Structure of BlaI/MecI/CopY family transcriptional regulator:
Amino acid sequence: MRVTERGQPEPHRRRRAPGSLETQVLAALHEAEGPVTAGWVRDHLAADLAYTTVMTVLARLLAKNAVTRRREGRSFVWMPVADQAGLAALKMRKVLDGEQDRRAVLARFVTGLPEGDEQLLRELLDQAADED
């Protein structure tokens, strides 16, 4: 527990929801009119974050192929690859890639979907098959 200068317990800070910083960083990158630095991202986030925190989030997004970067001078500029839906799809793919019995995982996924989502998935699969 942290303590204030007066020896009083500091109020508990609420933990962020998993992935919320990634979501905020991606949103900031999508608002940018082009490639931007980590400092720009930090300045455009609602939260008061350390530069190192922003860099950590950007590095994680880079590892997930949700952003790209290129060197400009002595630093990098960052660009989004995926939107929110794309990031969710990347997470789903990563989970699926980590499983040995893909068929069982996909079967459980499909049978666990609400009826409307199951029908939507069928339509999307039919549409993808038509495009091939």
Notes: The CA atoms of residues 114 and 120 lie 10 Å apart.
